[in-house]
Amino acid sequence: MKIKLHVWRQENEKAKGKMESYDLDGVTPDMSFLEMMDLLNEKLIGESIEPVAFDHDCREGVCGACSMVVNGEAHGPQRETTTCQLYMRHFNDGAEIYVEPWRSAAFPVVRDLTVDRSAFDRIIQAGGFISNHSGPKPEPNSIPIEPGVAETALDAASCIGCGACVAACPNGSAMLFTAAKVSHLGMLPQGQTERYDRVKNMTTQMEEEGFGSCRNYAECEAQCPKGISIAFIGRMNSDYLKASLAEPVDRRGKMHAQ
Amino acid sequence: MKRLKLLFASSIGKKFVAAVTGLIMFGFLLGHAAGHMKIFTGAGADGVPHIDHYGQFLKDFGAPALPPMIALWGARLMLLGSVILHVVAVLMLSDQNKKARPVDYVKKKRAAASPAALYMMVTGTLILAFIVLHILHFTTGNLPMLGKHVHGEVYNNMARSFSQWWVAIPYLIMMVIIGFHLYHGVWSLFQTLGLDNPDRNALLRGFAIVFAIGVTATFCLIPLSFMFGGEPAVDNEGMNRIYEYTHDKLSSH
Looking at domain A117-245, what is its CATH homologous superfamily? Predict the structure, then answer.
């Protein structure tokens, strides 16, 4: 296969980047997208050109490191697939492929396709702890959970924190990520104690990082490699509004009858 | 108040404000559309069109407990407040969104977002301009070039304006634009308020579609009827009134 690649090249966070075009020959349909990028880098090294920097780790679709917008879609055109699980057979011979980094003010470009996603770590940190029993191992079935609830919480927990939702969102919003993280604890009995503080703290941190707002496009859900539903955003909205409008502020204040 | 201020500081809170004000305006649209169906019910025994009576009824609403126009002005102020809050919240959110992506993609592709959702700002801006023109046209009567305006003659004012194609057609286009705004907005407000979930999604999505099309179609009936003679028209001078009546029959405020 012959491929024409347009790749975003940027020296560092401060530098002004631009698209560079490369022709790549010898691509086989069974190569993963990242293996194709490896092939490109070998070619570039042979030509004494600085190779393209990109994040990758497990290459089996579970770590969320491979952050690339391929032809305008986060992780490329295959639904519920990370870039590392995208194969060159999904493209035609002679295809033109645009490869760009996640575009978000909260994810500054470190180099080329590598972005700094520590904003997500700070959102997670803002979630804080859960109060839980420690000490002797409890009997596993001592806390009853409805199986449907447990499964839904696991759906939320399947978020790999890759940032595709932010990359895909026309507004650069991190609502799907934050909603998934808020929900997987907020739905379980163990997460109830700090439930309302958690949603406020995490969304506040999300705002401070400079992400955009949600306009219910559902673009994030469509491009999420784990197919996380925007139902979690609705759930987070509900929890946030309850936390902001209904949860007591002054629980122990004096009451007057007249 | 402190709670609301804190809420408004967040993007979810601003969206909450946009959703609640959107719901108020949507409620108004339903009432506005229903009231205007009186155009098609003809005139009363006194020769005054039902729609003119309806206009008078809105002015007198709340009487005798309230002086005339008070309830109407209350509703008008609530709607004005809703429009202002809706616009302010959305402009602030839009500013936040622009800052969230300083460098845009070279190649963009949408996998899910509907055109209605993507162009909410465009349709919203057009609707805002339309609201101003519509009030100047039919409420205050400041745009006589679109058709002679006589206060209280609701039916004849519409007949004079909409029997001219160049007034009717922009109105029709505007109704379709409002339909697009509702197609996304009416569902979106439930999601923002945290009321949508997979169990109700089909119902709420269907509700938005039915009402977006329904409101648009209902309002389109009016200019279309006058344009194609479904409703009796009056000439632009307004002298040949199809319903002969004097407005002395209606008290004027």
Answer: Alpha-helical ferredoxin (1.10.1060.10)
